[in-house]
Specification:
The chain is of the alpha/beta class. It contains 7 helices and 7 strands; from the N terminus they run ββαααβαβαββαβα. It has helices at residues 25-34, 38-46, 50-60, 78-87, 100-113, 153-163, 181-196; strands spanning 2-8, 16-18, 68-72, 92-97, 121-125, 138-144, 164-175. Strands 1-7-6-3-4-5-2 form a 7-stranded mixed β-sheet. Helix 5 links the parallel strand 4 and strand 5 (121-125). The chain starts with a strand and ends in a 7-residue tail after the last helix. GO terms for molecular function: methyltransferase activity. This is 2-phytyl-1,4-beta-naphthoquinone methyltransferase, chloroplastic isoform X2.
Length: 203
């Protein structure tokens, strides 16, 4: 199952910018490999519920028109596209991920969806442990299914708090460990799929 962490802390480009990234190379290679089927895996692991949870996570940020928001560990961009509609053409969405392949898919989706407001999204290949932004830069931050894959979670959270404006919100969506037999049995099957399947055959 998924856990939505609703946390309150007091404290127009179609291209992406590459940045240096410090991460576990094995994790980065895995996410690059599964990029073509990443969204299908989310459907499988969440039994299709992740789309509802993502809308909840975006709603809890309380992002509004004209805001500047960060979608950290953005993957193929689901949360970024939802945030884009919340902040409108006067706002700005930054989608940051360490996987170039995921960002290429996000960029392709941005083109194909042809929604005018999506021009307010910029994609950045970057490091969650060393965010390339000034202190207090964002009105809201989302992290969808990403925090568990960060090498140093405490440092990642410190970076999130650093770039948030005082009184702004971060909304973190992730899976927890489930005792339910159905979800517990799905996860090993997915991991076996990742180990043994040639991704090029299932596109």
């Amino acid at each position: 199952m998924a856990t939505l962490h609703h946390l309150t802390f007091v404290s127009s480009s179609f291209t992406f910018r590459p940045m240096s990234v410090r991460c576990d190379n094995e994790r980065r290679a895995l996410f690059s490999r599964i990029a073509p089927v990443y969204d299908n895996l989310n459907d499988l692991l969440s039994l299709g519920q992740h789309r509802i949870w993502k809308r909840m996570a975006v709603s809890w940020t309380e992002a509004k028109m004209g805001d500047r928001v960060l979608d950290l560990c953005c993957g193929s961009g689901d949360l970024s596209f939802l945030l884009s509609q919340k902040v409108g053409s006067d706002g700005k969405v930054i989608g940051l991920d360490f996987s170039r392949e995921q960002l290429l898919i996000a960029t392709s989706r941005q083109h194909s969806l042809s929604n005018k407001c999506f021009t307010n999204i910029e994609w950045i290949e970057g490091d969650a442990l060393d965010l390339p932004f000034s202190d207090g830069w964002f009105d809201a931050v989302t992290v969808g299914y990403g925090l568990r894959n960060v090498v140093d979670k405490r440092k990642a959270i410190r970076e999130i708090l650093r770039v948030l404006k005082a009184g702004s919100r971060v909304s973190i969506l992730d899976f927890n460990k489930s005792d339910e037999s159905l979800t517990s049995s799905i996860t090993p099957l997915v991991m076996a799929f990742l180990r043994n399947t040639d991704i090029s055959r299932v596109q």
